[in-house]
Amino acid sequence: MEIIIRPTAAEASSLAARIIAKHLREKPKSVLGLATGGTPLPLYRTLIAMDLDWSEVITFNLDEYIGLPREHPQTYHSFMWENLFRHTNIRPENVHIPDGNAADIPAHCAEYEERIRNAGGIDIQLLGIGTDGHIGFNEPTSSLASRTRIKTLTRQTCADNARFFGSEEKVPKHVITMGIGTIMEARMNLLLAFGENKAAAIAGAVEGPISSINPASILQMHPVAKACIDDAAASALERANYFRWVHDNKPDWQKI
Ligand code: PGA
After folding, report:
1. CATH classification of 2-248 is 1.20.1250.20, yes or no?
2. What H or E segment, with its residue span, contains residue 159?
3. Tens digits of per-residue pLDDT, 91-114?
4. Using CA of residue 217, residue 221, residue 225, residue 226, what is the dihedral sign?
């Protein structure tokens, strides 16, 4: 994994935005895997300000709550349209978000996987990380080979997301999420993490053993996984200074 530590979330987000923007300019028909939550918001704001051409871009979101009406403000459908898509020229038919109200959820999950394959696979998958190490909504002990499916959230994730719903009880307990096997097939994984409350999860993912107890640790097995994190999220990394050293000494040809 390439660990890029910047002093602030704004600086780490701007670097991630440059990685995505470069890709979109080189390949207008890019397939992006997108994430929700508090973490990607500064990145989305930066991408919007860059005024990129999204007319041929295809997107697949990582996950969605089960059972919330689609127009509920806290669905990831609402989140994505509000915080990114409506500010771009993306074509609605190129946007894919799991349907948390599908009548046959297992069939819908299989179809989601097929759509990703038919689009040619994901070029860049954006990821946040839960305080428990989850990626997508693959909670600890998720199969490292899992595909898109239903998951039950942990109490910790419900508590973490209570801020969006007003109380923990209102957070849906069930979700559809791309699996860890699905995420691992993306050609690049780009993980963002900001704040001290992510420091333990980041240390486990980067310096701990590969284990389903910290699902993000599977990224150690991915050939092109980059983590753009701020100083606070890096604060429990034993090798933080090594990662800073690597970044500061990158040959020009490896820079964005
Ligand atoms: P957050 O969530 O960005 O709201 O912290 C991250 C995640 O759960 O993956």
Report:
1. no
2. helix 155-165
3. 999 999 999 999 999 999 999 999
4. positive
Task: Report the atom number in ligand 1 closest to the C-alpha of 129.
Answer: 9
**Max CA separation in the chain (angstroms):** 53
Q: Coil, strand or helix: which one is 41?
A: helix
Based on C-alpha coordinates, what's the Rg of the chain? 17
Contacts for 134 with CB less than 8 Å, ≥ 6 apart: 140, 142, 154, 157, 215, 216
Type and span of the H or E element at 38: none
Mean pLDDT of 79-92: 98
pTM above 0.90, yes or no: yes
Structural tokens at position 192: 């963002």
Domain definitions of the chain by residue range: 2-248
For ligand 1, whether the C-beta of 39 sits within 6 Å is yes
For ligand 1, is residue 208 a contact (CB within 6 Å)? no
> 38: Cβ below 6 Å to ligand 1?
yes
**In degrees rounded to 5, what are phi and psi of residue 47?**
-60, -40
CA atoms within 13 A on the CB side of 34: 31
- Residue type for position 228: C
Helix (H) or strand (E) holding 154: none
